[in-house]
Amino acid sequence: METSQKVKQEKKKVLLMGKSGAGKSSMRSIIFSNHVAKDVRRLGATIDVDKKRVKFLGNLLLDIWDCGGQDAFTESYLTTQKSYVFSDVGVLIYVFDVESTDFSSAEQPPVGHSDRDLQTFGAILSALADYSPGARIFALVHKMDLVAGTYRPAVMQDKAVAIRARSGIFYTNIGTYATSIWDESLYRAWGSIVNSLMPDLDIIELGLKDLQAIIEAEEVVLFEQNTFLTVTRAGSEVGDENPNTDRYERLSNIIKTFKASLSSYTESNSSHQFDSFIIKTRMFNLIINRLTHNTYVLAVFPPGEAELQCAKVNILQAKDEFARIEIVAGGTNEEKKGKGEAEHS
């Protein structure tokens, strides 16, 4: 198969909803538009539905509908625009503001508080159940940096319980995440969201495991090149024992910040890419290298110049194979069926 072969792109509709001011557009801009946290304060409120089409791994197209959260817009989504908004949805991302006084799960909310946020969330899930019952749901409790660190687990637990209680038929198909634009938690949540939409991720994982074994790496991680969200990883027994479970999201955050800093030295907003990044120490080698048009690979492996050069050669040789794997993994169901029939004919 030629790696330049084109396949139809897999389109997924993603609804981004929540109360006005919850931080929906800010997080979208950080993940998909290469903004840094300090820059998103200038973003204005979303009016009605702001649509953005994003490529992920080349063949996966995300149609992101950023829905304004003002009361008038929300009312129209649930009435006159109901079929238009809630049909053919792959994922609903609902963003709650952790400090909202309208998020109360108490039977009798305190004075000045209400359960209005949860009522709206329940109404939206009810509409989604009518038009896209197979959709995946992700509830993000946002701006968690405003909660003192020692209280965050308990606050998140309470809100997750209240969210699930209003999730209806989606009770077993909902993920809840605590997020903030100021740390790696945003990448953890969005990485899970995007990975839930990726077809045949196991094919990519097998290819990455082969590469990890060839270069005798402690760990190999695959990142999408624009968002730097983690696609998948493969590791040795030593790599699997790494206690830093948030290392992938932290790397995403660090590298995205590094890429943003490159813009100070480039003339084009589209050129904030790099081919490779190498760290050599007496304990290990680390390389981040462009793997395909859509991905970067990070590898951690034993120290030494010979080991480094060997890894660079093997990554270079793996590029065509991973480009082919992306095509196979990213094709539509009809195309995959056709490929299977051709292979067995």
Average predicted confidence as pLDDT: 85
Outline the biggest β-sheet. 6 strands, mixed
Estimate the helix proportion, in percent. Answer: 25-40%
Question: How would you write the strand order of the largest sheet?
Answer: 2-3-1-4-5-6
Low-confidence stretches: 1-5, 332-345
Round the Cα radius of gyration to an integer and report it: 22 Å
Distance between the termini: 16 Å
Q: How many helices does DSSP assign?
A: 11
Instruction: Quickly give the structural class.
Output: alpha/beta
- Give the strand tally: 11
Write a structural description.
The protein has 345 residues and is an alpha/beta fold. The protein is built from 11 helices and 11 strands. A hairpin with a 5-residue loop joins strand 7 and strand 8. Helix 6 packs across helix 9 and helix 7 runs antiparallel to helix 10. The longest helix is centred in the last third of the chain and has 26 residues. The two termini are 16 Å apart. 38% of the residues are buried.
